Structures are given as structure tokens and as C-alpha cells.
Amino acid sequence: MSNIHASNHPLIAHKISILRNKNIKPKQVRELMHEIGQLLAYEATADLPVKSAEPQQSPLSTYPVVQLAHRIGLVPILRSGLSFVNAVQELLPTARVLHLGIFREKLSLQPVEYYNKLPSEPNVDQVIVLEPMIATGGTATAAVSILKDWGITSTIKFITAVASRQGLDNLHKKHPDVEVFVGVIDEILDSNGYIVPGLGDAGDRLHDTPSA
After folding, report:
1. Which CATH class is domain 4-48+67-207?
2. Domain Phosphoribosyltransferase spans what residues (predicted)?
3. How far is CA 76 from each of CA 85, 101, 124, 173, rounded to the nearest angstrom?
4. Nearest to 130 by CA among 73, 175, 172, 186
5. What is the largest CA-CA distance in the chain?
6. pTM score of the predicted model
7. Rounded CA separation 153/130 (Å)
8. What DSSP designation does 82 have?
């Protein structure tokens, strides 16, 4: 699928290998997520459109100025998506942050929306959805559907550290126009909807809240 961009960056591969380790502490999990998020954001923003602005003066001469042409929105899916926000904002300090809360119901594995902080009307031109994992693809698909219903009809991109092949396929079937920038694709999705080897529960590992 041409809209799925699996990174071949050695730093991303190295950092995800460390991140998978169940023995690292939450502080290191957060640091690695930040670093991976920023590296993926660099790749995801490579084709952002720019426009000309008023020329400015360097120490030696005037020079042409370019600036981003679109208003960018960052949409972290609570709660693990928050781990990417600061990383991407360091690259896009003027981006708006629009929060969505969606969780996967344990028995049905279906997405459930519990929080939506989108304004009544779109105030951005394109969005980048932030979610460290795409497992079944249900949450990712629901998030994109919400954004399209809200009125985002142009570019929607997705940044994720680890995704299952099945989850990406499911997202693509519903939203073939969405570009996904992923650190690594795992082939196995178990009967409980967990990616193998994956990362485990990203939110629990980030916030040191192991499931009962």
C-alpha cells in the first residue's frame, strides 16, 4: 500500500528494539517515545506545502522567506498518544492540539469514544493523528472517521511507532486516503488483539499503571 510508509531509519529501528524490552522503566519508555515520535514526525512532514512571505534581511543580504501554508492540527488519541505531542510540537510549535479519547473495549475489541475536544468548526487545514500503536485498527479507523465527520476533507496523516499488518489493512480498507508513518510493522495479532511482539500496553508502560 503506497500510503503506508514503514521507516527504514536505523535510529528508529534501534530505539524501538529498546522500547520493546519489558524491563525498561517508565521514564525510559517516555524518553524513547518522544525520540521515536520526533523522528517519525520529521518523515511525515517532509511534503508539507509552503508559501512565500515577505523577504527578510540576513547579515549579508535580503533573502526569500517561506512559511508553512497550512494550519496544522495534532490529534493525540488519549492516553498514549500524549507521548508524541511534545516531540511533534518541538518541530511544529504553532500546531494546534486537538484531543480525542477512544479506548478499545476488552471483550468486543470495538472502539469506544469517551472524550472529544474538537471545536464546533474545523480550525486547521490538515491533521496528524498521534498514536503509538495500531493493533486491530479499530481505534485508528474511528479517530479518522470522527475527523472526517468534523469536516477535515484534506490531508490526514497518522504517526505510530508499531503497527500490526492486520490493523493497517483494516485502516486502509475504511480510509485508503490516510497516510501512515510507522516505525515497524509486526505480522502477528493475537486472539486478544495484542500486537506480537509489539510493546505491550503502551499507556500502562508510559504511566506505570499495570493492568490488574
Report:
1. alpha beta
2. 7-209
3. 7, 8, 15, 22
4. 73
5. 65
6. 0.91
7. 18
8. G
* Cα of 143 vs its chain's centroid, Å: 11
- Distance (Å, rounded) from C-alpha 14 to C-alpha 1? 25
What are residue 179's phi and psi, to 5 degrees? -90, 135
Residue type at position 145: S
Q: What is the distance between the alpha carbons of residues 4 and 23, in angstroms, rounded to a whole number?
A: 30
Q: Give how far the C-alpha of residue 83 lies from the chain's centroid of Cα atoms, to the nearest Å.
A: 10
Would residue 137 be called left, alpha or beta, if left means φ above 0 and alpha means ψ between -120 and 50 degrees? Answer: left
Residue 38 cell numbers, joined: 520526533
Give domain limits for the chain.
4-48+67-207
pLDDT (tens, 9 = 90+) of the chain, 212 residues, equals: 689 999 999 999 999 999 999 999 999 999 999 999 999 999 999 999 999 999 999 999 999 999 999 999 999 999 889 999 999 999 999 999 999 998 877 767 688 888 898 999 999 999 999 999 999 999 999 999 999 999 998 789 999 999 999 999 999 999 999 999 999 999 999 988 899 999 988 888 898 887 65
Q: Please report the sign of the dihedral spanned by the C-alpha atoms of residue 84, residue 9, residue 174, residue 108.
A: negative
Residues with Cβ within 8 Å of residue 80, at least 6 apart in sequence = 131, 132, 133, 202, 203, 206
Ranges of H-type helices in 63-137: 85-91
d(CA 132, CA 153): 24
